[in-house]
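Session log. Operator J.P. requested a structure for one protein chain; no other inputs attached. Running the standard single-chain path with token output.
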Amino acid sequence: MDPSKEVLNPSEAANRLGVSTKALRVYELRGLIAPVRTEAGWRTYGPLEMARASEIVALRRLGLSLAQVAKVLDGAPQYLEDALAKHQAALEDQARQLTKKIDNVRSLRTDLARGRKPAPGDLAAMASSTAPALSFDLPWPWGGERFILHDLAPLTYITGPLGSGKTQLARRIAESLTGGRFLGLERLEGSGPADRLKADPALAARVGRAAGALIEDGATQSQALTAFLGELETGDQSALVVDLIEQGLDQASQEALVDFLRLRPADARPLFLLTRSNAILDMTAVGPRETILLCPANHSPPIRVQSVPGSPGYEAVSTCLASPEVRARTEGVVAFLPKRA
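Structure written below.
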């Protein structure tokens, strides 16, 4: 078929663009794109719609919010300039790191050519990227089995049914990572987050910019949002493990937040998000730089789950997740075993 005349359905268009069908619906709801309707009312995407959608996807991957994307498409280039400057800086940093690695390999080859063996640790340092990122013995309720995670994605979800041990796993992950921090539900109480921002104007400015982008994308200002952003924007690059990220956030805020987190650069601090909300962990929208960890109900060791229907653990993850409305209604519910008579 001539690509200039090709018409795609939403699923085909999403696959071609590397996004989810949900993302396409969001773009439509925000007035960024208008798919052509068939006589039967089905959405279709022709060459013009695909070109427009490709621009939207490219701008999103540069870190622009949906509101900023709309302004750029309407002819306001200042947001694009800022995004390109950040993208250039990230690429230059990656280039410096790659140049350093190439120089190290070149140096080792030069030494070999001169008959000198690598010094102790040189080869191990060069291959350190293949070592497990996480390795520890699982705490209770497990039996001490070894847990190994070979790489740290920018965004990792931890989920499981009530009583599955996901909070214990999250705490152990935070303890095992150098500088790792566990952000518990106490973040939702007291005036700590607000006091911290008052004491640090630079942090308050960063949090304000992040909150502004989220609110433009539909989020609601709240203590829960401010508390999380206050931790996220500290400038610290160590991993952050967050207990029930959805707590205190409405559905629109959850959707805007996870969208915001997906737009962070690849070298951003690793985030581990405990969740049981399908607005946070949308199995149809999980990208290649995201990891899902499932704590099974039977307390077998946690497993990594692919966001592909039919893959091991996929259905189990799906049954752990509920809508934000259900999560709010069941807030505070805990699992327990009744006493036997």
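Operator note: DSSP finds 13 helices and ten strands in the chain.
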